[in-house]
Amino acid sequence: MSLSDYFENVEGTGILATADSEGVVDAAIYGRPHVIDEGTVAFIMNERLSYQNITSNPKAAYLFVEDTAGYKGKRLYLTKTKEDSDPELIASMRRRTKKCENDDSEKHLVFFSIDRIRALVGE
Fold first, then answer.
1. Backbone phi, then psi, for 96, in 5-degree steps?
2. Whole-prediction pTM value?
């Protein structure tokens, strides 16, 4: 199954781990990534700690735990490659309809190259 198909069809919970330039780690719940191609994903990020960390340290890890019995999922090891802050582009990438008026001008579409993919458990 392609990465795009996987994240389109598998339900679960995602966690994005980042660290600042000093190595202080943070982890945050994140939705499924937008798969640009089999080597690139993107996340819509608010101007919070994860985004601040990515601006000073381009490395991150994304852990996806499937909503199923046992421990199934994926670990993606990532490196930030670029970002875009165009509110129209960000609005077009949203999966959910906004329930309230949000200001996309304070959000960033952050692109990552996928350095490595591993199973959730093992390897």
1. -105, 150
2. 0.90
